[in-house]
Amino acid sequence: xxxxxxxxxxxxxxxxxxxxxxxxxxxxxxxxxxxxxxxxxxxxxxxxxxxxxxxxxxxxxxxxxxxxxxxxxxxxxxxxxxxxxxxxxxxxxxxxxxxxxxxxxxxxxxxxxxxxxxxxxxxxxxxxxxxxxxxxxxxxxxxxxxxxxxxxxxxxxxxxxxxxxxxxxxxxxxxxxxxxxxxxxxxxxxxxxxxxxxxxxxxxxxxxxxxxxxxxxxxxxxxxxxxxxxxxxxxxxxxxxxxxxxxxxxxxxxxxxxxxxxxxxxxxxxxxxxxxxxxxxxxxxxxxxxxxxxxxxxxxxxxxxxxxxxxxxxxxxxxxxxxxxxxxxxxxxxxxxxxxxxxxxxxxxxxxxxxxxxxxxxxxxxxxxxxxxxxxxxxxxxxxxxxxxxxxxxxxxxxxxxxxxxxxxxxxxxxxxxxxxxxxxxxxxxxxxxxxxxxxxxxxxxxxxxxxxxxxxxxxxxxxxxxxxxxxxxxxxxxxxxxxxxxxxxxxxxxxxxxxxxxxxxxxxxxxxxxxxxxxxxxxxxxxxxxxxxxxxxxxxxxxxxxxxxxxxxxxxxxxxxxxxxxxxxxxxxxxxxxxxxxxxxxxxxxxxxxxxxxxxxxxxxxxxxxxxxxxxxxxxxxxxxxxxxxxxxxxxxxxxxxxxxxxxxxxxxxxxxxxxxxxxx
Length: 666
What we know:
By secondary structure, this protein is of the alpha+beta class. It has 22 helices and 10 strands. It has 2 domains: 14-304 and 530-541 and 567-660, MFS general substrate transporter like domains (Growth Hormone, Chain: A); 357-488, Jelly Rolls (Sandwich). It is globular, with a radius of gyration of 28 Å.
């Protein structure tokens, strides 16, 4: 087999070096489509509403989805360090990367066959696909120290994240168009197929242009790969003191990345809780994807002595750290509420018309006409996490009336094979559905029993209204209507996205001018930035994000905050990856990046638990957001105690020792 050119070799062809880097970063472009479309945006909703349509409720579907996440996480955490060590010994990093990529892409592509009620098939394919995704990422990361020279690892790692943002964002945008234009479930199913093709095709350059790294050691006579793997893992864990600085970094990373992962994973849920619409949340997700591209590159170059624009980059980042919160908060106070998106006053109960809130048979604000009865459904039966009390009608022309003060209500009902339909009237007149079909009707028939189904009824304007639901039977086997609850929704946020984006872009233009004019002023502090200090700068910005997230309550602040998240999200993760690479022996990169993968996978456990506890105690997750500051402070403090130069020295000595052992055996 031909000798592998070292990235440190002076004879290494510069064009080939750049080609290897591009091929490596293109894999981030390839697999980030899985992270955006499959993990974040489309498959979770599709699983709940389509694949899980035969389950008793969306809550049960969510529970099964969470179980799938946990299973894939556990399997990935077990396999990563074990197979990583095998790849070091047997020189098979690319082979394992190809195997997990094929596994993930194939399972993702097969999701195209998942239709209504196929929750078990969807669960199995998702678990397999995510194992492929997690396993491939571990081997992909382990190639970084073999692809990039040490002085380039920060910028190359950041370039990978930038490519991932771009690739994942582009395909997600395409997939959203597919959802809007293709009929039924075809758009979603073809989106899954497109992710598989995208992932597989754009992975090819890596396998063609990135060489297989050298082995960590050669096998002794009579020794198997498995026995050598166990021996090496035992040796690493028994000699933790030898890699003291690396493990100090891993502990710091576990803590601060828990908060970062919590912000990434729960941002959409938190935004929905604050009343931001689904369109705004999806657009904000796309904004973070695309805005993260240039800022990931900036953060990757902040620690680089070769960069001549470090002062400009630092000035621009610090400008945004200070000005984005100031302008966002000022905009929420000074701009008209129909532009800034400041919420209107809550709808309150007036003259017997109930205000915003959730109403069930227990509160009984309803006027019932006909033969209605109350029936309990346990949490085990309903899958809703709590006992449900249903209002049941079994006869045509039974009516339920609610007087409310507001604009929109959400009706939660049970669907099933014995269920019929109900018609909706507003203020004594049939509510028209906007089509030629006439009066709005809600068909509650479903082939299987399912709780927690919802329908939203919107009045032309806010005020006091009377809504009447009339049992009109149905074409199915029965006339049963079962109402779980009716919620009077909070006022809509009215905002002008065009004005908000214009103010945001104007702020960035001023920031660019400021950074250009003051770059000489920032050259000296920028010159002191190392990889570690750049990560700590990102943690300071994340602390501001957590505090602001606790306080924000307007659409303009939401968008400005999303921009601030985009500034640090990719850069903090990219620099963490490259710093870890510099502290790890390159010849053991498979093993050590397997451990890094374990920490990365389990670094979002405590944060979500705090969110759940905050909701249970306070009825809101706002307190959990501000508590994340503690994670950034503790993680940053522990990071400050890492002696990077000592850790790098230990890693280089280990590489030299392994190389000499191989040379002696040959």
